[in-house]
Amino acid sequence: MSIESLMEYDFLSISQIMKGIICFFIIYVIYKFLQVNITCSMAYKEHKIINEEKLYSNSKKQIVKYMGFTFFIIISIIFTNINEFISVKNQAINNKTDDYLDVILTRSEDKMKWLEFSSSLKTLKEYKYMSIDERMEVMKSIVDYELDYLGVDENISLIYEKYDDNKGGYYSDGDKLISINENNIENPDYLKEVIMTVLHECYHAYQYECVRDINDSNYKAYNYNLRDYKKILIWKYEFENYCDSKMNYDDYINQGVESEAEMYKMFAILKYEEYID
Q1: CB within 8 Å of 202: residues ≥ 6 apart
Q2: 160 with 135: CB under 8 angstroms?
Q3: Cα dihedral 131→134→139→140 (10° resolution)
Q4: The sheet that has 177-181: what strands, in order across it?
Q5: Mean pLDDT confidence for 241-257
Q6: 20, 93, 120, 182 — which has fewest CB within 10 A?
Q7: Count of C-beta atoms within a 10 Å radius of residue 75
């Protein structure tokens, strides 16, 4: 039994008991209230009232006492319910029966992978003494790590090329490759810029993978009010109607596929900065 069904069952059973007890005490308080009023009425009719105000005062005290007791019972049941809920949840975690444990393990696995991978980044301290091929090997290891982190199950090649402009690089989904500006890889002072280019283009590979998954699925069944589905559809439209930076830079950078790749790059580079001189 999963934690969701286990907790739902436990919550419902306790909730039903709680409702029953509350209803009982509410009926009991109403009964006592009516009983007091009937007693007062009979006493009045039979001229047995010695002090009517005292009788009603005592009645009110009785009602307040019963209501206070009922409130105490309700609060006690609520706290009992919460404790039971937490107890069941902890039991499910300890028994590894709930699904979100897999999410926790995945996050821990991400951390372990980073610790293992980052140990190899110490070679970046010697980056300026490396050959072009050695630098490309380091960059390829970053590509492989980032794609694995993003969940992209594709073998993406990494090359460098001579560009006619100052563009840092590009990703070609058709060729399954990331290209880096040769001038940047040759200049050791551009280490950070090269890594940021790699991060940006890796995220494009991830975006294409998301769009491809939507295309290969019955995406009409998805709930497009959900932001992630809506976002992927925007990526799909923008890739199909892509605006290159040479056409209009403002339109280019304002595309969702570009702005989000830039955002990913800016956050991801923080992991690498301590390894860059």
Answers
A1: 143, 146, 147, 150, 152, 156, 171, 178
A2: no
A3: 140
A4: 157-161, 177-181, 169-172
A5: 87
A6: 20
A7: 10
| Residue 227: pLDDT band with limits 50, 70, 90 | confident
More confident residue, 132 or 14: 132
> How is residue 178 written in tokens?
């990331």
Contact present, 265 and 196 (Cβ < 8 Å) = yes
Backbone angles phi, psi at 83, to 5 degrees: -60, -40
Nearest to 191 by CA among 260, 121, 115, 257: 121
| Sign of the alpha-carbon torsion through 196, 202, 208, 214 | negative
Q: What span, in angstroms and rounded, lies between the C-alpha atoms of 84 and 171?
A: 53
Question: Element (H or E) spanning 111, and its range?
Answer: helix 100-118
User: 115: burial class by Cβ within 10 Å (0-12, 13-18, 19+)?
Assistant: exposed
The dihedral through the CA atoms of 190, 254, 219, 227 has a sign that is positive
Q: Model-level pTM greater than 0.70?
A: no
Give residue 153's identity as a one-letter amino acid code.
D
Q: Which two tokens stand for residue 58?
A: 């005592």
**pLDDT tens figures, 66-99:** 666 666 666 766 665 555 545 544 554 444 434 4
Give the separation between CA 127 and CA 228, rounded to whole angstroms: 38
Q: What is the pLDDT of residues 188-216, one digit of tens each?
A: 999 999 999 999 999 999 999 999 888 76
- Angstrom distance (rounded) from CA 178 to CA 202: 8
Write out the two tokens for 191.
């280490």
Span 155-183, mean pLDDT? 93
Those residues with Cβ within 8 angstroms of residue 264's Cβ, 6 or more apart along the chain or in another chain: 199, 200, 203
Decide: 197 and 180 in contact? Cβ < 8 Å: yes
d(CA 108, CA 102): 10
